[in-house]
Write a structure and sequence with these properties.
- This protein is an all-alpha fold and 98 residues long.
- It has two domains: 30 residues; 67 residues.
- Helix content is 69%, strand content 0%.
- The chain has five helices and no strands.
- Helix 2 crosses helix 3 and helix 2 crosses helix 5.
- The longest helix is centred in the N-terminal third of the chain and has 24 residues.
- The two termini are 32 Å apart.
- This is DUF2695 domain-containing protein.
- Pfam families: DUF2695.
């Protein structure tokens, strides 16, 4: 078993790596962080009542209300982060903001 100091050092390195990964994630957002947070809130409400069509209908509708066009670059970013449809944006990407 590794000495206590080595375990602490590993934990610290893991924590630093996680912080670096989160900063990289936030730096590469395709939209303003607040817009994405608002999108999560909207999807949470909409999916509860409408379910998911397993496409980006709800995301596109929300962004259109913000006068933002859903671009291929945004879709690629969503997919790179596990968001292959509206419900997966909420379930897979929102957790990365925590």
């Amino acid at each position: 078993m590794p000495p206590k100091e080595e375990k602490q050092q590993r934990r610290q390195l893991h924590k630093e790596r996680a912080q670096k990964d989160k900063m990289e994630f936030l730096r590469n957002l395709p939209l303003a962080q607040q817009t994405i947070t608002d999108l999560f809130d909207n999807l949470d409400s909409e999916l509860e009542f409408n379910g998911c069509e397993h496409d980006y209908t709800l995301t596109d509708r929300f962004l259109a209300l913000q006068e933002i066009k859903l671009t291929d670059q945004m879709i690629e970013w969503f997919q790179d982060n596990g968001g292959y449809c509206d419900c997966e944006i909420l379930w897979n990407i929102e957790e990365k903001f925590e």
